[in-house]
Design goal:
Elements (H helix, E strand, L loop, with lengths): L15 E2 L5 E2 L9 H7 L27 H6 L21 H4 L14 H5 L9 E6 L5 E4 H6 L4 E8 L4 E11 H8 L7 E6 L19 E5 H4 L5 E6 L2 E2 L9 E3 L12 E7 L6 H5 L23 E4 L6 E2 L7 H4 L13
Parallel strand pairs: 3-12, 6-13
Antiparallel strand pairs: 1-2, 3-4, 5-6, 6-9, 7-8, 7-12, 9-10, 9-11, 13-14
Length: 339
């Protein structure tokens, strides 16, 4: 099947440690405003907040934070934040744009469908099945899963295969930590992710636009890379339904459609998974889907991109600007053939 429409993606753990030593669970409606948490703990901590306990770093310093009203509404618009080790220093895409302009075909194929229809998605109770080539297979509640890890902030570029981009401030935990906890067997070579299948909650699944449920995958070494991330929050708040609540994958050097949303199953496999868009249009959407300005999509160039909220276009960076970190994963590979 070849569909003329194209995919985009997109766009604490329960166990978040705050300065007062309390553990907080990021659940629907949670608003983790680091400034508010700091003020709540002023009797214990003075001076500028550099971290929120347990290694939780506050987000990047950014120029042009905007009005006082905007800063109060969005904790990540503030300009007084130190850079974390994985953060880009580019201007963050505002919350309103990040949550209203995205693809999530489970809700429909228009950019406005996810935000308009996401209220139908119920994220509690929610369980994730973990199985395959692991020594500790299990089904775990989403809040229990979050409690295993300290929450981290990551400000990543996001590049859609359609030729537009954003800068997203995620909250979550490294995928590598989850995989190592599961104890992969020697046969594990890939990680397959499966999204929720429920046409009652996902009206887009009532149409055969894609083969449902949505499936994505990574090579095991990609999944273990420090940049690979499981997000449970966005802009200091619980992850909205339209952005993949309650659990989604974020792999910033790949095109957005690789970043599967609303995950219910994680399976370690010996064989490469058959992924949704690669099945739908294999000549257009490869398994690797690394951002590569030198390899055009069959129907458009990938050399430039439109940053949402900006005029004009900018050059697309190899591996979406993360080449120094990840290019070694593909040494010796033909990235035109393995697109």
């Amino acid at each position: 099947m070849t569909d003329p429409r194209t995919p985009e993606d997109q766009t604490q753990p329960s166990g978040l440690q705050t300065p007062d030593g309390q553990r907080r669970i990021l659940t629907p409606g949670s608003d983790l405003n680091p400034r508010r948490e700091f003020m709540r703990s002023a009797a214990l901590f003075t001076g500028t907040v550099a971290a929120l306990g347990g290694g939780l770093e506050v987000l990047t310093r950014r120029p042009g934070a905007g009005s006082a009203e905007a800063q109060a509404a969005d904790p990540f618009s503030r300009a007084d934040r130190p850079l974390g080790p994985y953060d880009t220093d580019e201007k963050v895409t505002p919350y309103q744009q990040a949550t209203t302009y995205n693809n999530f075909y489970e809700f429909g194929t228009d950019k406005s469908d996810p935000a308009r229809l996401a209220r139908s998605l119920k994220t509690r109770p929610w369980t994730v099945r973990i199985d395959g080539e692991v020594r500790r297979p299990q089904t775990v509640d989403i809040d229990t899963l979050q409690s295993w890890f300290p929450l981290e902030d990551r400000v990543y570029r996001m590049r859609c295969v359609e030729g537009w981009s954003m800068v997203m401030p995620w909250l979550g935990f490294p995928l590598a930590g989850l995989i190592r906890r599961l104890e992969p067997t020697s046969k594990a070579k890939y990680v397959q992710f499966t999204a929720l299948l429920d046409p009652k909650q996902f009206p887009g699944q009532r149409q055969p636009v894609l083969k449902w449920p949505y499936v994505e995958g990574l090579r095991l070494d990609e999944a273990l890379h420090p940049l690979s991330f499981m997000a449970v929050g966005l802009h200091g708040r619980a992850l909205p339904g339209q952005n993949g609540a309650p659990l989604r994958l974020v792999v910033p050097w790949k095109y957005g459609f690789k970043n599967i949303k609303s995950i219910v199953r994680i399976t370690l496999t010996e064989k490469q998974p058959q992924t949704t868009w690669a099945l739908a249009a294999p000549q257009e959407y490869g398994f690797y889907a690394n951002v590569n300005p030198a390899v055009p999509h069959p129907r458009w160039s990938q050399a430039t991109e439109r940053r949402i909220g900006e005029l004009g276009r900018r050059k697309t960076l190899p591996f979406n600007g993360y080449a120094d970190e990840v290019a070694s994963l593909y040494r010796g590979m033909d990235l035109r053939k393995n697109f």
